[in-house]
Design goal:
globular, single chain, alpha+beta, eight-stranded mixed beta sheet, 33% helix
């Protein structure tokens, strides 16, 4: 039986595009399958903020940030906490990725037309010892054009290869089985779905109009994770993070359901570290949703007062932007699945960014004027829209009215005005001197020593109850599902492995389906900016390895 292509790639997200581009560059014939309509090409990367982890970049050096491979690897190990026998390949992938991020990554992207916003962000700051979790220095590089700007160069290469006859793009093709002949997995079967006019990210029809069977010398699985399937998220929820939340928002559409992971597992692939996952604690309901339960993550600066559901400050060092999973674990210990930011207009105007390409039209549209307007405006327009329309926002001039509004948003009136006032007044007294015992205030002052934070990300320390800084604002924060850190175990050539540790012939995996490499190169925690880069690196690796194998 003849082959329909040299390689079949399953999933037209960022890792699938990267793999397909590499295959086409090597002259291989590719069929690229995806169950969603063509307008959804690029997958979740299109909706992203476009953050990328780079080490010792020109952008860092211009801002007087001294970074190094050694420091980045120290930080990665402190975040990952590799401690399992099955961490052999994930750790090797992590080493390879940090080498990439400190080496050719920026030049490789630059060659493809990717450019970066000049201010480097400082995500996941940690707050523990030097060998603990967190980025010691700012490394979060924002793609100029955000997610769409990162997807575009790879989509262009794939479409150019399609015009040359090397790539066959087949959307509305849902894979249901992978099967073998002559010992290798070389047959992909599935259903053809009804054409759908659904907009990117919205629910598309699941009506089946036909079936397909395709054969190739190799198959690359780039189908993403499980973040849109809350039942599967709860089934894999680790005990170390407490009970799973009763209510979660979705950072990805429902079609990110993990189905292809199960299909590959049934074909003989091994899934490792399914309990390692990355969910955000600063989720807010999108007032203009694209998909069901659509949540947006606040990318906070360090100044907001973070309270649990009954009004207690979160413990050190669980400040905004410091330790995502440490905060998640603490929240679930409280018995509630939501928390609060309490802040003022001066802080929200300087420190709130919203994750997502659609929430950053200036950066997404590559508008210098829009970026300048963001800096000049008291509150950026996308944030102001949430203040005006968002279900999770309370905006009031006095604290009593703020507390009443907070209690109206929840099932129980848990916030006591007198107690919250005492907490805020105590914090405000610490602003009198340039020194303090409040470690969050110390962190804020430390952040402003970094030029990037002082310019656009951290408000000058001030009293929350200063009327000139008002009005006061409270934001209810929910758990937001996002990334799968575990996945299909792969070797350094992206070949999927079996339960016995042997190569599953003919099958490769990349992106979130492979835990961004190896079945979980992040370990337990991410340093942020490493998901998109992990998709690109693993997709590139899989494409090159498969091209060589079928050549």
């Amino acid at each position: 039986m003849a082959y329909d292509a040299d390689v079949i790639v399953i999933g037209a997200g960022l890792s699938g595009l990267a793999a397909t581009a590499e295959l086409a560059a090597a002259g291989r014939r590719v069929i690229l399958l995806d169950q969603e309509p063509e307008r959804s090409i690029g997958g979740q990367a299109h909706f992203s903020f476009g953050g990328l982890f780079l080490v010792d970049s020109p952008e860092q050096r211009r801002l007087r940030v001294r970074d190094s491979h050694e420091l980045a690897w120290q930080d990665w190990l402190g975040a990952a906490g590799f401690d399992r026998p099955e961490d052999h390949w994930p750790r090797r992938w992590a080493e390879a990725y940090v080498d990439f991020a400190a080496g050719e990554k920026r030049a490789w992207l630059h060659e493809r037309g990717v450019r970066f916003f000049p201010v480097v962000g400082w995500a996941e700051r940690g707050g523990y010892a030097a060998t603990g979790h967190g980025n010691s220095v700012p490394r979060f590089h924002i793609t100029w054009g955000t997610g769409p700007g990162l997807v575009a160069p790879f989509e262009r290469r794939v479409r150019a290869a399609a015009a040359r006859g090397l790539v066959d793009l087949r959307f509305r093709h849902r894979v249901t089985t992978l099967t073998r002949s002559a010992g290798a997995v070389d047959t992909v079967c599935g259903e053809v779905l009804q054409p759908s006019p659904a907009a990117r990210g919205t629910a598309s029809s699941r009506e089946v109009t036909g079936s397909f069977e395709l054969r190739a010398q190799a198959v690359i699985v780039t189908s993403g994770g499980i973040g849109g399937n809350h039942d599967l998220v709860r089934a894999n929820w680790p005990e170390r993070l407490g009970p799973p939340p009763a209510r979660m928002l979705s950072g990805v559409p429902a079609h990110v359901d993990g189905a292809m992971l199960g299909i590959t597992e049934r074909a003989g692939g091994r899934i490792i570290n399914p309990d390692r996952m990355w969910h955000y604690t600063e989720g807010i309901e999108n007032w203009h949703p694209i998909w069901a339960r659509h949540g947006i993550r606040i990318l906070p600066g360090p100044s907001s007062l973070w309270l649990d559901a009954i009004g207690r400050r979160l413990p050190v060092p669980l400040f905004p932007g410091f330790d995502t999973l440490g905060t998640l674990e603490h929240i679930m210990e409280t018995g509630y699945d939501y928390t609060w930011f309490v802040l003022d207009q001066r802080i929200i105007g300087k420190e709130f960014a919203l994750s997502g390409s659609e929430q950053n039209p200036d950066l997404t549209g590559k508008s210098l004027r829009g970026v300048l307007d963001r800096v000049r405006t008291a509150v950026p327009a996308p944030v102001k829209a949430f203040m005006d329309h968002g279900a999770d926002f309370v905006v009031e001039r006095d604290l009593g009215a703020l507390v009443r509004g907070m209690n109206e948003l929840t099932k129980e009136p848990l916030i006591v005005e007198e107690e919250l006032r005492d907490e805020i007044v105590a914090r405000d007294r610490e602003m009198t001197n340039p020194f303090t015992k409040d470690l969050q205030v110390t962190a804020v002052r430390g952040a402003r020593r970094y030029l990037g934070d002082r310019l656009i990300r951290t408000a000058a320390p001030h009293r929350l109850l200063d009327p000139d800084a008002g009005p006061l604002i409270a934001v209810r924060l929910s758990i937001l599902t996002r990334k799968t850190l575990g996945g299909l175990e792969t070797d350094l050539s992206s070949r999927v492995l079996t339960e016995g540790g042997e190569v599953l012939p003919g099958v490769y995996a990349a992106g979130e389906a492979a835990g961004f490499g190896g079945g979980g190169m992040h370990g337990y925690r991410s340093l942020e900016g490493t998901f998109l880069g992990g998709c690109l690196f693993s997709g590139r690796t899989a494409g090159r390895a498969a091209a060589k194998a079928v050549g």
